[in-house]
Design brief:
Layout lengths: L1 H38 L26 H27 L5 H23 L4 H24 L6 H18 L2 H24 L23 H30 L4 H26 L4 H24 L4 H8 L3 H8 L1
Amino acid sequence: MRERYRYGTQRKTASMVEHRLAKLAAAATFVLLVIGGTVNPTGSSLACPEPTLVCHGQLFPPMVGGVLYEHGHRLAAMTVGLLQIALTVLLLRRGELRRLAWILLGLVIAQGALGAITVGYKLPWFVSTGHLLLGMSYFAALIYTAFRTRPAPRRDEQVRELALHARRLDELGGARRWIAIACGAVFVQLLIGALVRHLGAAMVCLGIPSCTRGGDWWPDAWVQDLQMIHRGFGAAVAVVTTAAAIAVFRRARSWPALRLLALTAPVLVTAQVVLGAYTVLTMRAVPLAVGHFAGAAGLWALWMSAWLMTRRRAAVAAAHTLPELPAMRLVQA
């Protein structure tokens, strides 16, 4: 009996450690994305010429000028990499999460490789764009991991919790499709924004809301058209986010956490629009440009969290139940 109890307690403790480490890695990745968002607006992308872990031949060079942003980004990336290695080791101990462990490790290795290629080949736009989108994908994968590793409730609470979740899903109904649409719209906008950033189209339109200050909406230059597409699709994302938030808030009457996300979404997307406009009006002031980028990452995390929060839990519950069986038998005994 004592061995079974000890085994069950150890498994529950291990699950909590995995869950907390996944959340820590996700938070660190958000910080890494924000730090990375400072590199381009400050013109620091090539402040460290080596496509390796060092900068000007040093692992810890004087952190001044562009080196502060570029090598600071690298040091933050190293920290996330170490967190991911630790998380992978923990996840590999659970058979049902081994595939996820290798996927996460592969994503972070690929992200580091793309970062090195970006510097080594002097910022090719398609590699830089892929680097940004893969970073957002890895961020989403960590959010999924945090949801996936939540400790299972006790046996006597599990049925009640699953029943409550099923009832909430029934109440939500078709509003979950709006969450999927919002996730897709935000990711497309991330792609367009990445193209704007890495094709040099960030400041080709100085008018608000038109492209030029003289009132032209669609000038001849294709980079100006790209900037206007980014603005137009940003307005579409704002509409989709607001519609999705209203639909979710109205249907999720017994789901406080989901309603909080729905209330936050319109505020966040409004801030995004305002920050985008003022970024242009201030000739891309760095704090505003970074805030605009951070808001995009935050909106992506919000809708991904809403999507994962509202998925069916039967498979998750089953996956968490098996490791808890010895402890459950002790409770039953």
